From TrEMBL:
Protein name (record): 3-methyl-2-oxobutanoate hydroxymethyltransferase
EC number: 2.1.2.11
Pathway: Cofactor biosynthesis; (R)-pantothenate biosynthesis; (R)-pantoate from 3-methyl-2-oxobutanoate: step 1/2
GO CC list: cytoplasm
Family, per entry: Belongs to the PanB family.
Superkingdom assignment: Bacteria
InterPro entries linked to this entry: Pantoate_hydroxy_MeTrfase (IPR003700), Pyrv/PenolPyrv_kinase-like_dom (IPR015813), Pyrv_kinase-like_dom_sf (IPR040442)
Key words of the record: Cytoplasm, Magnesium, Metal-binding, Methyltransferase, Pantothenate biosynthesis, Transferase
Keyword Signal: no
A Pfam cross-reference name: Pantoate_transf
Catalyzed chemical reaction(s): (6R)-5,10-methylene-5,6,7,8-tetrahydrofolate + 3-methyl-2-oxobutanoate + H2O = 2-dehydropantoate + (6S)-5,6,7,8-tetrahydrofolate
Length: 275
């Protein structure tokens, strides 16, 4: 299993870090068997698995339930679990309690939280308590209603400088890595050079120390429109639909089940319904 130290070494050796999201046992198992360095149980599960239109409805119970399943499928992979909306904002006590539950119950290797500002204290407190933290800057979906939509961040000098400063603060607060979402490639490059912890980009260009994509996006599984920064490597939608359609047709046409799919019994053991 990768460790915090190994991931840090990868940055220093300029070896790219791979991360994929997973939400359940099979997606985690397949990801581990495919050789990813790290898995993120993202709160994107709200959208790609639970059918919500944002990450905001996702609860602690959802993250624990899915995080446990992922860890069962990928017990030999470094797993990061997202703390969900408002689970780290109400009070220090509540934040620590939530983080403890999420970390202990899932068996994750780290937790991820979005933002800087007041969240910097939280990064420090969790790290101090023994929970490795991954930061998340740029487009932070839990604050989508404040930032005014899912759009690229840090496009002008003022915002770009603020993002660079915040990245440094996240590092100084003790984060072990930083996810950069939807920032222009040159800015993500600057941040990656400016901080000593690994940056993991999504829609942030090729100069980040690692890349993360959503499982369902990579496979085109249950999603129709993909953002520009996603490259699909398969088409699960087509494969699932053609397989399921064929199953339905074969049942209707009495092609399935056929001889290979049924259990036989000896003729004399078959009871007669009519005496
Ligand atoms: O929830 C998620 O999938 C994420 C990634 C997009 C980084 O936070
Ligand atoms: Na997330």
């Amino acid at each position: 299993m990768k460790t915090r130290a190994k991931l840090q070494k990868m940055k220093e050796n300029k070896e790219k870090i791979t991360m994929i999201t997973a939400y359940d046992y099979p997606s985690a198992k397949l990801s581990q068997e495919s050789g990813v360095d790290t898995i993120l149980v993202g709160d994107s599960l709200g959208m790609v698995v639970l059918g919500y239109d944002s990450t905001i409805p996702v609860t602690m119970e959802d993250m624990i339930h899915h995080g446990k399943a992922v860890k069962r499928g990928a017990d030999d992979t470094f797993v990061v679990v997202d703390m969900p909306f408002m689970s780290y904002h109400i009070s220090k006590e509540e934040t620590l309690k939530n983080a403890q539950r999420l970390f202990q119950k899932t068996g994750a290797q780290a937790l991820k939280i979005e933002g800087a500002g007041e969240v910097l204290n939280t990064i420090e407190q969790l790290t101090h308590a023994g929970i490795p933290v991954v930061g998340h800057l740029g487009l932070t979906p839990q604050t989508v209603n404040v930032i005014g939509g899912y759009r690229i961040q840090g496009k002008n000098k003022k915002d770009a400088e603020e993002l660079i400063e915040n990245a440094k603060k996240v590092e100084e607060a003790g984060a072990m890595a930083l996810v950069l979402e939807c920032v222009p490639e040159p800015l993500a490059r600057l941040i990656t050079e400016h901080v000593s912890i690994p940056t993991i980009g999504i829609g942030a260009g090729k100069f980040c120390d690692g890349q993360v994509l959503v499982f369902h996006d990579i496979l085109k599984y249950g999603v129709d429109r993909l953002p520009k920064f996603v490259k699909p490597y398969g088409n699960a939608n087509d494969w699932f639909q053609s397989s399921i359609t064929q199953y339905v047709n074969e049942v209707k046409d009495e092609v399935f089940p056929s001889k290979e799919n049924v259990y036989e019994m000896d003729e004399e053991e078959i009871p007669s319904l009519y005496g």
